[in-house]
Amino acid sequence: MGGVWNEIVGLWSWASPIWLVIAAVLVGYWAFFGGRMERRSWWLAGSLAGLVVAYVSPVAELADGVMFTAHMIQHLVLLLLVPLCFLLSLPRERMEEWLARPRVEPWGRLLSFSPVGWALGLSVMWVWHVPTLCSASLQSSWLGVFQDVTFVVAGLFFWWPVFSPMKAQRLAPASAALYLFTACVGCTLLGIYLTFTPISVCPVFARPAAGTGLLEAVRLGGFSARMDQRLGGLLMWVPPCVLYAGAIVAVCRRWYAGEEDEVVESENFRAGESVK
Amino acid sequence: MNGGTTERIESGKGVDAPREEAAVPPTSKILSWVTTVDHKRVGIMYILTAVFFLVVGGCEALLIRIQLAVPENDFISPAFFNQMFTMHGTTMVFLVGMPVLIGFANYFVPLQIGAKDVAFPRLNAMSFWMLPFGGFLLYYSFMTSTAPDAGWFSYAPLSTKPYSSLGGIDYWILALLVLGIGSVAGAINMAVTVLSMRAPGMSLQRVPLFTWMAFITALLTILALPALNSALAMLFIDRWLDAAFFEPARGGSALLWQHFFWIFGHPEVYILVLPAFGMISEVIPVFSRKPIYGYSFVAGSTVVIFLLSYGVWAHHMFAVGLGMFADIFFAIGTLLIALPTGVKVFNWTATMWGGSIRLTVSMLFAIAFLVEFVLGGLTGVMFAAVPIDWQLTDTYFVVGHFHYVLIGGTVFGLFAATFYWFPKMTGRMLSEGLGKLQFVLWVLGFNLTFMLHHFLGLMGMPRRVYTYSDEPGWALLNGLSSLGAVFMALGTLVFVWNLWVSKRKGKVAGDNPWGGFTLEWATTSPPPVENFTSLPEIKSRRPVWDRDHPDLADWKSAKTPEDGGWRPFKGKVAMGAFVASEAVFFILLLVSFVVFNSGDRGGLDGPSPLDVPRTALFTVILLGSSVTFWFAERALRGGDQKGFLRWLLITVVMGLVFLGGQAIEYAGLIRSGVTINSNLFASTFFTVTGFHGFHVFAGIVALMILYFLGRKGELKQKRANIFSAAGIYWHFVDVVWIFVFAIIYLRVLQ
Question: Do residues B108 and B421 make contact, with C-beta atoms less than 8 angstroms apart?
């Protein structure tokens, strides 16, 4: 029991440099938007927690050439969760004011141009699973950092047209639903491909460098490289689509917004009447 | 494509009301129905055709139940039994379920949104006539060697030539393709109608829930049917051109058929049940004298169902061994989709809560829907648990489960809608007395027949087997189950009799006999050809309620989003929807290419016989034609007719050159002995590029028609929108080629 415990504790990368990034984000956020705790602060916490999951938790250690599945979790957290939570944490009024500035405004418009966001969001998913690129990103740490940065940036571009803090830059609800639905189709196809293809899309995980005791333990548990890729493919396939479905619900809510409470009130009113 | 507003009015002459028709001689009366493009008449023809096939499919069910009434029965032969359950399933899904729902949508969606007709009336008539044509093809199989007998999902390899060498499966394939074309065309029409034909004030957030459900159903149809079509095309190529997509013995994959079929098949379940959700969302509020509880939840959660329904198909395949992880994910997805469906039941119940309920026959069926559908839904959730599925799949438990959904859900919803809307369609009320008799017979018979199926399934009785040995209890349960079928048959006779008598002698209904809320009740019963003489002001979800109760008007107490006036151009929306449908078709064909040509699946062994550089050149030409098309469009919009014609002609020529390139490729391959039946690489190559080439050819024909219209001066600047709509198709064909070239020629993903 103790051995397993040590193993698990040892998997945490407490010394990860990501803490510097987190600190920088906190300081920057405090400087720009003030340090008052509000509801949106929880979204910021969620975003930073995503970074901790990706770089400090065992996911980070396992993603580094041991398990394709962990690698995929890291991808999804960086691409989908971290940018989404960060966007939602931005205070709307301050951002609207800031984005209206002449020097910032063109950048905001670029971010809100939905074909760019859609294409970036999908292409990072697809391109980084080209076998050579996938393996290379694990063998060169600089390429790995570059890959992670592209995930977060592409994620910001992807979510911006749906959840931009500036109302005017958001897609109309029907278009937003279409945007998310087609994105779901895109990652579904990739997920199906990863799940069922006999080809190893990230050969590093199929033929890892010898000597990692952790990997041997995982493999001895019956978790073959093929199963690993299957699970990774399913993670690519299902959770993003569930997230997009949730986003579509949010968009629908916005679309019908501001009337549900009143309807309930009037219904109570009428129900009361009919009883009389 | 121009929607035909003029011919709609012309064709409507002299078909105003039933009383006037009596003066018209019978032959021209029939002719006026055959040639009609009026959405109401098309709707009625859909419904009547469906009722006809309901009787046919019902008779098939009765034969099945007679055969199973006692153990070791030899009333019908095993082979005929196979044909019966196959034809019963296929008939009920494709010739009854879908058409009757499309029929009601056809009749009532334009009325509910205050439109004069559907977006494309002539396309609507064509969609309808595909139905009798498809039904005829399917049933013609009886005149040949054998009717289809591989089950309604025709699993491979049973459906392939070595195992089903006779013609039944071929008629099944052709009939389903024909019906599929009709369904997709009808669905595109419906989606465009809802988006583009709404009366002023009818924002999308205010449309009646039946209209909303019909809209989502249309979207589901547009994106689900092509999956079936691509599978059918591949099966047909297997059977007639000797390919082996679905023949494991020659390297094909029987499992691929299951995947493709259920990618269509699961959304199909929602295609069959969502309109019924819409129907009871109309019936329950009216007979509870309350607005629906949580409109936006009911509407919004349907969007979620739409999305999730494409992600759960593999729960039909737990037994084939997809692997533990896939099973877990699909189980979770299946449990998730139960949420938006299940909570709706609370919405309907909460609508009834505190209302002043009138227990008309319509409302009785709606309440029965709630109860029976919950039962069917719960057994559905049971199947999401993989081990339960393993235990019960292919037993009578499954049969019980989906009949609870499709009869307890869809059919009861349909009965509720029929009693609710019959007065609007005919001007006369259905008899409530006969209706209650029918209700009792159906509820008794239905529960007797199908509740017992659950027990039989738990005891291990397999479905689709023509007889059974006399295990303890099986004879009794089967006998009672067959008895229940007799009750349902009697109930149906009462129903048809009720329709027949009430149409003639029923109580005159008046405009709004139930005190309905939505726009169909604002016109006469039956409505005039142009639907409305005047429309009430639309300021809420219940315009007729507002008109009749100005003091309690909804818009005074509850705000709904105002109509921003968004009505997209019909041609473009229709073309966009069509292209989306085609995209699904091509995606699945390309998936099959990747499946068979990755690793050692029996695809290509050795170097590719394709000439990549030469095809790259022709690719550039095809993509260039998109650019020249764009130039033509710009010239047309700018009023430069000559430039428009020149660029358009260049586009056509470039398209032809591309086809020439393909012809060279084909000729070379065939000369070197590579044909569609050589191996799976050749099969997939010829199938994908062949369908693409056919699409290019169709595009060229369309462009030439536009060219000659332009030459004659009928396509000018102010009709440039039509040209842009054609452009969506042309650009789509080019985009598809980019993927074809990347995957087949450059061998990406393999």
Answer: yes
| Burial annotation A68-104 (CB, 10 A radius, 16+ → b, else e) | bbbbbbbbbbbbbbbbbbbbbbbbeeebbebbeeeee
Residue B737, amino acid: W
Considering only CB atoms, A274 lies closest to which of B296, B356, B554, namely: B356
The residue type found at B302 is T
B479 contacts: CB under 8 Å, gap ≥ 6 = B69, B70
* pLDDT tens-digit series, residues B119-152: 999 999 999 999 999 999 999 999 987 899 999 9
Amino acid at A173: P
Q: Taking CA B457 as the corner, what is the angle to CA B455 and CA B463, rounded to the nearest 5 degrees?
A: 140
pLDDT tens for each residue of B599-646 = 766 667 677 889 999 999 999 999 999 999 999 999 999 999 999 999
**Structural contact between residues A71 and A38, judged by C-beta atoms closer than 8 angstroms:** no
The answer to whether the pTM exceeds 0.90 is: yes
ipTM computed for the complex: 0.86
Nearest of B729, B719, B740 to residue B697 by alpha carbon: B729
- Which among A195, A197, A262 has CB closest to B326? A195
The 10s digit of each residue's pLDDT in B653-696 is: 999 999 999 999 999 999 999 999 988 999 999 999 999 999 99
Contact residues, B window 282-321, toward A, CB-based 8 Å cutoff: 289-291, 293-297, 299-300, 303-304, 307-308, 310-311
> Burial of A201 by CB count in 10 Å (0-12 exposed, 13-18 middle, 19+ buried)?
buried
Q: For tokens 């418009």, name the residue.
A: A109
Host H or E run for residue B564 = none
Amino acid at B553: A
Structure tokens at B120: 């494309």
Question: Hey, is the C-beta of B590 within 8 angstroms of any chain A C-beta?
Answer: no
C-beta of residue B389 within 8 angstroms of C-beta of residue B433: no
